Request: fold
Amino acid sequence: MNSLSQPAKWEKYVWPGMLSVLFLLTWHYTVRWTQSTIFPSPLDVQKGMAELVHKGLLWNDIADSLKRVGAGFGLAALLGIPAGLALGWYPAASQVVNPVIQLMRPISPIAWIPLSILFFGVGDEAAVFLIFLGAFFPIVVSSMNGVRNVPSMYRRAGRNFGLSPGALLAKVVFPAALPQIIVGLRIALGIAWLVVVAAEMIAVDSGLGYLVIDSRNSGKRYDLVIAAMIMIGVIGLGLDMIFRRLEKVKSVRWGFRHDN
Amino acid sequence: MSSTATAVTQGLKTKLRAQGITMVFKRDGKETPVLENVNLEVGEGEFLCLLGPSGCGKSTMLNTIAGFLKPTSGVVTIDGEAVRGPDPRRIFVFQERGVFPWLTVEGNIGFGLFKLSKEEREQRIAYYIKLVGLQGFEKAYPQELSGGMKQRLEVARALAVNPDMLFLDEPFGALDSITRLIMRGELLRIWEKERKTIIFVTHDIEEAVQLADRVVVMSARPARIQGIVPIDIAHPRDISSPRYLELRDGIFEQIGLAHKV
Reply:
């Protein structure tokens, strides 16, 4: 077998499965051999997860985290896509705004925590604001670049058929930029999911991030810490898969490279 | 210096007149003359080929005629009216890359028909799908089509708005040689049916002689009209007939190519 050959179907499941089992066994026996009293074994984590589910805590925390991400990410998309389209459409405007965007972009949303608490107090708004900040810039930048990269041929064809500038934007420029906008949304949602966990550790008292920090603070329940971490991973993966589905929709599929 | 092509094919009414078209591109303070005093007349329903070496400025000429570029000096008039910009009465056909990949075959053909009622639009779409032989692919996306099919789709999209002129910029350049031959036949069939005025840009001498009523031979940059060759052979053209070979070789000579490899 070399890097060019297609793995057989059974290999797609068997190798990752074996690796997972190996990982869990290593984890389990490392905890055993080191006789750690604090660090949980996989079985402890599984019991912790069952406990969370049983108490009904987990679903509330998941729902709260998702609500915050929904609000922050939704707001970022609602404002970021039109802003990016406008900046791509009017190069003069982007020349003015771009330096500010480029300066703001590398500032981690986490660095905004003090200011967000100053602005909004401790509570949901502060968390949503942080998520918004993390998601907004990738959406703006990808929408702007999406518009800029629309081949001039498409614009010319649109003008040739007598479209007004507004119709040109709606019927040619937006659909032509859509694949790149979707890429930006996908990146932004990933960031939003990272930020919500951090924000919940500081600004609020619910959600998966709060569950992680609270489990540690109230009784060093590392089994619950890891159970919450696993949930964060699983949900993050699920959110990403929604977007991967979206990339396969036929009217945008042309903009992505696909293996088949 | 002036280069003139005033003699329209006999018996045709003048559709387009380009007078003294000069184009100078400015970039980084450097001036590049691309077109030099080009004069051209095209008759109504005529099939005209602009032929010249790659990068000579024939594409610039076509973009100027279509209203996408403003000449540095000179005027293009169509039906006696000065061209001020692109117009749905005259559709520009790019290489097949001009079709919209986010729309289906139907969506592409119906793109320019937003002013029609739904019923009329559907009728037109169906008619042109049939005309270019894309039945069965109505719901397909361009990604799922071959190069030749995409090219037919773009021609259908252009024809659907019922323009009086078509501008084709090396439309078959990206196709393989067999598909290209088939597409030439298709284009002639459609032209004979719809009788649009066609200006067709190509660097392929054989293609020009196979298609055109007149071949306008352009010089290297800055492009001037070097000569105009009327192709007085009826369609379908026998491409091994003595007259065809004579006309073709004449153009080879005009361009300054020894007819040997």
